């Protein structure tokens, strides 16, 4: 298998963290891509022109990050990262959706920052920043149940919170969310997280 990836994309990071946690990183060849490059978008097997994109051994394209993570969890050996059924499955998927929504909003803020100052919309930035911090508040209410579980949901939340630290470095989200902060600071010490720290420039999903 081959993964179109970038060390700057939080959506790619989710996939790589999962691969490390399942012990399957050696099964996937990485092919670096830049989703901000027109040429790279044209070369990406995904018709969306985005990364991450996984190309299977039989040449099929799997995208985007939630689908890739579920695919790898299904076809590869290692610890189960997404329950196949039951209430826990929907809890995990809800956490992933919350985290992905946060990252989508942060990407929107980043794209807005690339515009000339006179063309930037403070309203767009404020709206999307509010989504991020409302989501953090919701996760705080859920964080006591995270425990030491490593799955698609907690991986996604940890990557999103790390991206908050990068995107809104001047905002202290930890002070109002101590349970979530304590959980994240412990999870962030896992080798899979420490080995996948994002570089500063951003490639979108």
Write the layout of secondary structure elements.
Blueprint: E1 2-5, H1 10-22, E2 29-32, H2 38-43, E3 53-55, E4 61-62, H3 65-75, H4 87-113, H5 122-142, H6 152-167, H7 178-187, H8 191-194
How is this structure best described in words?
The chain is an alpha+beta fold and 205 residues long. It has 2 domains: 2-75, 3-Layer(aba) Sandwich (Glutaredoxin), CATH 3.40.30.10; 87-192, Glutathione S-transferase Yfyf (Class Pi), Chain A, domain 2 (Up-down Bundle), CATH 1.20.1050.10. The chain has 8 helices and 4 strands. A 4-stranded mixed β-sheet has the order 2-1-3-4. α1 links the parallel β1 (2-5) and β2. α1 packs parallel to α3 (65-75) and α4 (87-113) packs parallel to α6. The radius of gyration is 17 Å and the shape is globular. It starts with a strand and ends in an 11-residue tail after the last helix. The model has no long low-confidence stretch (mean pLDDT 92).
């Amino acid at each position: 298998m081959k993964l179109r990836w970038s060390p700057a994309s939080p959506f790619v990071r989710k996939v790589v963290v999962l691969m490390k946690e399942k012990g399957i990183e050696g099964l996937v060849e990485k092919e670096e891509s830049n989703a901000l490059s027109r040429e790279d978008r044209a070369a990406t097997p995904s018709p969306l022109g985005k990364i991450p994109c996984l190309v299977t051994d039989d040449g099929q394209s799997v995208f985007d990050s939630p689908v890739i993570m579920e695919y790898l969890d299904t076809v590869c050996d290692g610890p189960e990262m997404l329950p196949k059924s039951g209430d826990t499955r929907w809890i995990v998927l809800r956490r992933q959706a919350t985290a992905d929504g946060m990252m989508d909003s942060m990407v929107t803020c980043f794209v807005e920052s690339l515009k000339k100052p006179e063309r930037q919309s403070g309203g767009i930035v404020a709206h999307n920043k509010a989504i991020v911090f409302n989501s953090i508040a919701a996760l705080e209410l859920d964080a006591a149940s995270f425990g030491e579980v490593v799955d698609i949901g907690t991986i996604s939340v940890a990557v999103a919170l790390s991206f908050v630290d990068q995107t809104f470095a001047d905002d202290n989200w930890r002070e109002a969310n101590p349970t979530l902060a304590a959980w994240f600071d412990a999870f962030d010490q896992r080798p899979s997280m420490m080995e996948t720290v994002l570089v500063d420039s951003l490639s979108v999903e």
